[in-house]
Amino acid sequence: MERKTKRWINLWQILICYLSLSACTSKDQIRYEQFVITGGQLYQQHCANCHGESGQGLRELYPALTESKKLEDLNYLTCIIRKGGDKMPANKELYDLDIAQISTFLKYRWAKDKTITETEDVSKIQCAN
Fold first, then answer.
1. What's CA 28's distance to the chain center, in Å?
2. Could you tell me which CATH number the domain at 27-124 has?
């Protein structure tokens, strides 16, 4: 077989393998993984300074996230991120999408919940002043 033809066959085999493997991941799974990754980056940027990179908190000053049942409450989580509370400052510069991504990351990392937090669900939440 000619060298050029063999090279084209190898390229086609690689392309077919790539397409086969990428087809195994659904659009929903890819979107979920994007939320977790981006949420983790936003957590590092906006939350880790106080709550710690591992969510361990700092004694009584900043609560640990590692075993917090509050991570399961989207209303609480959205409002505490938006408005702050106790010693936590408000994060007014975050969009609903950012909060949804952070929430998805928090649930994935510490609540062992593998569901995505939808931006629409965050948008519907009304926080008290």
1. 13
2. 1.10.760.10
Both tokens of residue 112? 């062992």
The per-residue pLDDT for range 89-98, each reduced to its tens digit, is 999 999 999 9
Q: What angle do CA 68, 105, 30 make, to 5 degrees?
A: 150
Domain boundaries of the chain, sorted by first residue? 27-124
Q: What are phi and psi of 29, to 5 degrees?
A: -65, -40
Question: If you write DSSP's letter for every residue of the chain in order, what string do you get?
Answer: --HHHHHHHHHHHHHHHHHHHHHTS-HHHHHHHHHHHHHHHHHHHHTHHHH-TTS--BTTTB---TT-GGGG-HHHHHHHHHH-BTTBPP-TT--HHHHHHHHHHHIIIII---PPPPHHHHHH-----
Burial of 126: CB neighbours in 10 Å, binned 0-12, 13-18, 19+: exposed
Residue 103, classified by CB atoms within 10 Å of its CB into exposed (0-12), middle (13-18) or buried (19+), is: buried
Give dist(CA 82, CA 86) in Å, integer. Answer: 13
How high is the pLDDT of residue 61?
81
pTM as predicted: 0.79
